[in-house]
Amino acid sequence: MDKFIKPFQYNIIEEQATIVVQTQRSVNDRHTVDTLKLLALEKIEASFPTASAEELELLRESIQLGKTQRELDKYLEKVKPMIIPFKQPSDKGLQKVFAKTKKLKVPEWEEVALDRQTFYGWNDVAKQRKYIIAYQSDELIGLEGTISPTIKKGLCAICQTISEVSMFEAKGKVSKEGNYLLKGNYICHDSDKCNRQIKSEDDLFNFVKHVKPK
User: Fold this and answer.
1) Which of 102, 86, 76 is nearest to 20 (CA)?
2) Which architecture, in CATH terms, is 7-82?
């Protein structure tokens, strides 16, 4: 079987499989447990609209788990080899995406768990800047902006989770007065954590569309 799971889809599987295991530990009513299992499977299958019969068979194992952490861990280890990792861009590709950026701080890719990245974001602390890259319709896109050093609890515009967020702002088009308009929103300060919480590419691309200069 070929790899067919995107990193954000793995997050959904992990979340729902965990709910299945934890529910069986804490709930004794069989009907309630069965109902929650079906709801969990519906959420998983909804994120795989084009899954084959073989792929669905693997996904459905998520609701056949028992109560133990060992069973959950074993299942997730079985699923992980099916993840399609984030494609590492070339330095040339990054330079093209961030053509106006001087002295771009390139990621240390050997330290990145590419199989957990729906997008990739990194901070340049010295410049208080954040860089985000993703693939939209197989095309590498990039977003650059300022990231506030102030961190607070709030809703992340990318992963839609209550998390440790900071204000991200990118320069938009020039106003009538000749000033750049800033567009932004609160997002996870730590993009690695954000990638472990994101469960939809749509929210990511909506954020990019909102703040990316036209």
Assistant:
1) 76
2) Up-down Bundle (1.20)
